[in-house]
Amino acid sequence: MRTIELNQRQELILQIVKDNGPITGEQIAEKLSLTRATLRPDLAILTMAGFLDARPRVGYFYTGKTGAQLFSERLRKLTVKDFQSLPVVVNESSSVYDAIVTMFLEDVGTLFVVNAEAHLVGILSRKDLLRASIGKQDLQSVPVSIIMTRMPNITMCASDDLLIDVASLLISKQIDGLPVVREVKMDNAVKYEVLGRITKTNITKAFVQMASDEIH
Ligand code: ADP
User: Is 113 in the pocket of ligand 1 (CB under 6 A)?
Assistant: First the structure.
């Protein structure tokens, strides 16, 4: 299976290198009765996509990697920073009512709760807010800090983390999203500043992008 569409000439080049490698660009060009310059873009594509390996003064080798292997290698290189969204935060003293309004206005499924220093203290999901709403409490007077999932029980990630690791965490922890954070040291304690949000939606977008990706 090839996940990257190769044109007929690229397939031909691949076959030639498979049968004759190591082989120089010049020799491939000769076999195809084409100029080296005409072949250059195809060779660049095949090398960048990982089908071929180029060694200076030796020539091109067939890597033997299948399209599926190359797809998986590329997937494992995706990082959080390229797919994260802006975080939506509420203050820990906000009411449950205000959090519900924020969730509708910002059109997100997860809110991050911060303290006065803007450090992460909790997280609120749709169901956390629904659960609070079916009680008899006055939602305007209950602060979110009463109902949120709080630190240190929050699963977080950093923008340099791999997207595939975040996807695994979402599955194993059965949650919809993670805050993307940066550590800050304060009074000998580690605190977290919220930089972004990464959710199942971001991962779905990465999945769609991978499927429609040209080689780059
Ligand atoms: P929902 O509750 O709407 O189905 P989730 O599955 O994301 O949404 O949340 C399930 C529970 O896990 C909620 O109580 C929520 O507060 C908590 N939660 C959500 N995200 C995280 C996270 N990153 N770390 C820890 N707990 C979380």
Answer: no
Predicted TM-score (pTM) of the model is 0.81
- Ligand 1 atom nearest to CA at 153: 25
What contacts 12, CB < 8 A, 6 or more positions away? Answer: 32
User: Position of tokens 């003064």?
Assistant: 57
- Sketch out the chain's domains with CATH numbers: 8-68 (1.10.10.10), 80-207 (3.10.580.10)
151 close to ligand 1 (CB < 6 Angstrom): no
Per-residue model confidence as pLDDT tens digits over 79-104: 999 999 999 999 999 999 999 999 99
Cα–Cα distance for residue pair 64/48, rounded to 1 Å: 14
**109 Cα–ligand 1 center, Å:** 10
Rounded average pLDDT over 202-206: 95
* Cβ–ligand 1 contact at 128 (below 6 Å): yes
